[in-house]
Write a structure and sequence with these properties.
Blueprint lengths: L58 E3 L2 E14 L12 E14 L5 E13 L7 E14 L3 E13 L9 H4 L3 E15 L2 E14 L2 E2 L5 E2 L6 E15 L2 E14 L11 E14 L3 E14 L7 E15 L2 E13 L8 E16 L2 E14 L5 E14 L4 E14 L7 E13 L1
Antiparallel strand pairs: 1-2, 2-3, 2-21, 3-4, 4-5, 5-6, 6-7, 7-8, 8-11, 9-10, 11-12, 12-13, 13-14, 14-15, 15-16, 16-17, 17-18, 18-19, 19-20, 20-21
Length: about 425
């Protein structure tokens, strides 16, 4: 989802059906340890639906199909630096080339994508952003029951203002490089599916310069996260499965924070739930469990609590899809010396409607509550937005977006902000 933060810097790679919005920034998160697999092809959402007269054709070369695209856009924001006072308005423009590759192999799978966004603000040069995202995934099927998937990603990213890890006015200027490597083995036979995955994610943060010219070194945020996760699913019926998942993690920081102990820690997460795909009604995944983080240093209090994950899509009509997602996760923060973690509670809703076969309307709302452990600090984040996507033909797509976001902090008025933005873009694809 996209946050106000002048999303001018992160283009979303177009799918084979239609292009996604280009301006979304990412927070310091790692991808899901084991990707959701509730889709059983019993429902098709508005954004997934094939449109033969408007879908891009791509270029076929042997067993591979390439989908190139070029996106350009302009936008406006009424609060460039996401500050409470002294709001500054500005416009921006961006240029975003991208390409995806998919395989058409009888059994195995290879997918790859590359994207870049070159963003320039008209007045405030220190908000200019250049980002990229490279991804490669390969799956090898071994017999009828076994498969092994390898995945690698490397990206340069700008933070979201709702990440909760640092102050929003700093987050909009914060860039980092992220590398991600994962290997997953899967066994599926009859009603049973078992998955074991291991992954490693490394973050390297750039130094930044605040709007007032103050430099900030972010070496203390450089970190490596490693996880080992196992999941077992049992199909109660073709439409419904139950699952259990357990995962261990380790986080290591490379540099001291304010010359005090690092937030190195070990974690445990246990969750169970159901995933389902009921034809003509809904599909999704709902789970709950327990999460714990133990810090190596006594300076930080160990944290534990309830973990929640959920994503459900409803299909009231063939032309409308309604999605709701909920989550409760435990994350690290650099906002205070006396706390190492906070609980991030979020609920997001989205509606997509096909007004015409080539005109899609979308609306999104989000609420996020961040609770910083060991302190009275509580932050609330709100976001609302709407989009209109018009496919002139299979080669040209026009998109308009309006968005608003707001964040409040109960004990720090200076960290509060609100922003309104608008954007228009055009995408050329093959």
């Amino acid at each position: 989802m996209k946050v106000k933060i002048y999303k001018l810097i992160a283009v979303a790679l177009t799918s084979a059906a239609w292009p996604a919005v280009a301006l979304a920034q990412e927070s310091v998160l790692v991808d899901t340890a084991i990707p959701d697999s509730f889709n059983r092809d019993r429902n098709v959402s508005v954004t997934e639906r094939s449109r033969p007269d408007f879908d891009p054709l791509g270029f076929v070369s042997g067993a591979f199909t390439f989908f190139p695209q070029m996106q350009a856009g302009v936008g406006l924001s009424d609060n460039v630096f996401l500050t409470r006072g002294d709001k500054r308005s500005d416009g921006y423009a961006y240029f975003a080339p991208a390409v995806t590759m998919t395989s058409d192999l009888p059994r195995d799978e290879i997918r790859a994508s590359a994207r870049a966004v070159l963003g320039r603000w008209f007045t405030y040069d220190n908000r200019n952003q250049n980002t990229f995202d490279l991804r490669l995934l390969g799956r090898k099927d071994i017999g009828d029951a076994y498969s092994v998937t390898g995945e690698a990603q490397y990206a340069r990213i700008y933070e979201q203002p709702n990440s909760g890890a640092i102050d929003p006015s700093t987050a909009v200027l914060s860039a980092f490089n992220r590398s991600y490597f994962a290997v997953r083995g899967r066994y599926a036979f009859g009603r049973v599916q078992a998955t074991l995955g291991v992954d490693r994610t490394a973050f390297t943060f750039d130094d930044l310069v605040l709007a007032n010219g103050t430099p900030i070194n972010q070496d203390s945020r450089d970190q490596v996260q490693q996880r080992l996760t196992a999941e077992l699913q049992y199909a109660v019926s073709p439409s419904l499965s139950v699952y259990g998942q357990v995962g261990g993690s380790k986080v290591e920081y490379s540099t001291l924070l304010f010359n005090v102990d690092n937030r190195d820690s070990k974690g445990l997460r246990v969750v169970g739930g159901v995933n389902f795909d009921l034809a003509g009604l809904m599909r999704g995944k709902l789970g709950a469990g327990y999460i714990k983080r133990d810090y190596d240093s006594p300076l930080y209090k160990d944290a534990d609590g309830v973990s929640v994950e959920g994503q459900v899509e409803f299909f009231p009509t063939p032309l409308t899809t309604v999605g709701v997602a909920v989550a409760r996760t435990l994350r690290d923060t650099n906002l205070a010396l006396n706390t190492g973690a906070f609980f991030d509670n979020s609920v997001t809703a989205r509606v997509d409607h096909e007004l015409l076969v080539n005109l899609l309307l979308g609306a999104t709302g989000e609420y996020r509550r961040q609770v910083y452990l060991g302190t009275p600090t509580r932050a609330d984040y709100y976001r609302a937005g709407g989009t209109a996507t018009y496919m002139a033909n299979r080669f040209v797509v026009l998109r308009g977006e309006l968005g608003w976001q707001r964040r409040t902090v109960n004990d720090n008025p200076n960290s509060r902000f609100s922003e309104f933005r608008g954007e228009l873009s055009i995408t050329f694809r093959r």
